[in-house]
Amino acid sequence: QPLKDIHLRSKYDYELAGNGNLTYLKYLGIAALFILFIAWINYVNLSTAHSLDRTKEIGVRKVAGAGKFQLIRQFLGESLFLNIIAIILGILLFRFTLPHFSTLVQKDINSLLVTDWSFWFFTVMVLLGGTLLAGFYPAFVLSSFHPIQAIKKSTGISGIKSGKNILRKSLVVLQFVAAIVLIAGAVGFYRQLRFMQNRDLGVNINQTLVVNQTGNVDSTQIPSFNAFINDMRANSAISSVTASTSVPGGEVGNSSSYALKNSPVSKRCRNLGIDKEFIPAYGLTILAGRNFTNDKPAVDTNLVLNILVNETAAKIFGFTTPADIVGEEIDGSGFHCKVIGLVKDYHQESLEYSFDPIVFYPEEERNFGNFSLKINTNNLPALMDFVKQKWTTYFPQSPYNFFFLDQRFNAQYNDDKLFATVLWLFTAIAITIACLGLFGLSLYTIAKRKKEISIRKVLGATLYQVTSMITKDYLKLVLFAGLIALPAAFLLVNGWLKKYAFHIDLGLWFFILPVLFIVTIAVLTVLYQSLKAAVANPVKNLRK
User: Fold this and answer.
1) 50 to each of 142, 164, 429, how far by Cα in Å?
2) What is the three-class DSSP state of 341?
3) What's the mean pLDDT in 315-337?
4) Which site from 226, 243, 409, 460 is most exposed, i.e. has the minimal number of CB atoms within 10 Å?
5) Average pLDDT value for the chain
6) Residue 240 CA from chain centroid, whole number
7) In terms of C-beta density within 10 A (0-12 exposed, 13-18 middle, 19 or more buried), how is residue 115 classed?
8) Is residue 9 helix, strand or coil?
9) Residue 533 in 3-state DSSP?
10) DSSP strand pairing (329-332 vs 335-343)
11) Per residue in 42-77, pLDDT tens?
12) What whole-number distance in Å separates Cα of residue 223 and Cα of residue 282?
């Protein structure tokens, strides 16, 4: 495996903690490009919308001898100038907000520098691409005006005006397509995150303090293990104590190949060493057979080892009715095993992963690495001091390491929570930029239609009729954008959800919430200017 692939592209079993997630980075990169795309569309829209105000300027320039390509260079220069200012402000904003973003993502990126050549290469490409994409069409439209028509009334260029209206509407649709896709993605991810956090895990991880054994131990330490457990159980603030090789919230420590007796086909299962208190302490369910009582631990390979298996393990061994595996003999991990019980599947890890086949076996005390204490107290500091004092007394060679199990389990979703926060932030920025463009475009459109609105009011048009006349055009565009965006968003979000073994279904809410949200925002954006125009004195507008 290439060393450089480990951080973002490695998904092996028993991976060291701390890996990044390339999928999240790709989605955030797409969201960033959507934001940039929406900003470019705003520039094109507003530039072409205001082009009629510059027709006389263009006509005079052409009469004075300016050629078409000179005008194109001028307008591309304007676009380049604005893009340069935006790049400079963006870099300054990046440097200013980097410490805050570092706190948000919980990574030390304050030292992130912009001296790498690839950063500047990408910046220059964005600058040139933005200049051409945002400036080329306005430059082409503005430089194409005929000087005689341009010097006359601007309304004489009806063909160009009509074409630009179609383009502006198309671009408005495109930017709201991007915004709706982002909203749908953010809503879908948020609901998946809530689903994972609220789903019944099938295992009780609440009020569980886990003390981790990291020191080297041998059989001479067995009395210390027993004494420690007895002291914990004697404390009224601790309702139960259990020891195991692994606990929920991460992969089971190791795995081995197992095969049914007289079968050549082997299956790989996770090995989880537990004591007889583990099943009841964690609230696991025995579906068939029995729990461990005084079963001998995995020491002598010449003796039959009693084991428990979960439902998934029973299924991979070919039992359509999992309970039928009870009583079967299985060979694996150097032992001859007999299945004495079937455990209901539970979520050992986050819901990103499916149920693993697990073999539970009775383990020696000295091989237990985790002591799970189910606590019930209002005086947690005193209990923590008690546990620490007993631990250092019985295991002076082992550091006192502990964690609360629910916090550790939920820590599996830290990256998901962080991604959701950043994605909502990006979505809010995209919506704001899209609405700013819509606000500017509607402001310009209403300014051009002031006399029409005034005449309608004089002829008896009501406030509702005037405002609905203006807002319905934009409402149609947003709804049309929803028709385009939702299938794309569905494919994107549904494809992303498939990486989770357990995920939500994209129901009717997925198609209603994003469109309803963006329609509300868009209508409110246009409605202010519409109401302002509708209540204005028509006499003042008709005098101009």
Assistant:
1) 10, 11, 25
2) strand
3) 92
4) 460
5) 83
6) 37
7) exposed
8) helix
9) helix
10) antiparallel
11) 887 777 666 656 677 777 777 777 777 787 888 788
12) 25
pTM of the model: 0.79
Return the amino acid letter for 73: R
d(CA 40, CA 124): 16
Q: 254: phi > 0 → left, psi -120 to 50 → alpha, else beta; which?
A: beta
Residue with tokens 């507003």: 46
Count CB atoms within 10 A of the CB of residue 528.
Answer: 12
Distances (CA, A) of 416 to 354, 422, 423: 17, 10, 10
Radius of gyration of the chain from Cα atoms?
34
Q: State how far the Cα of 457 lies from the Cα of 471, in Å rounded to an integer.
A: 16
Q: Which two tokens stand for residue 484?
A: 């385009």
Q: Which residue has the tokens 């003796």?
A: 303
Tokens coding 354: 């499916």
- Alpha-carbon distance of 71 to 195, in angstroms, equals 57
Structure-block tokens of residue 408: 């550790």
What is the C-alpha to C-alpha distance for residues 260 and 276, in angstroms, rounded to an integer?
A: 25
3-class secondary structure, 25? helix
Are 515 and 486 in contact by the 8 Å Cβ rule? The answer is yes
Q: Which two tokens stand for residue 399?
A: 């550091």
What size, in residues, is the chain? 544
Closest CA to 28 of 437, 350, 415: 415
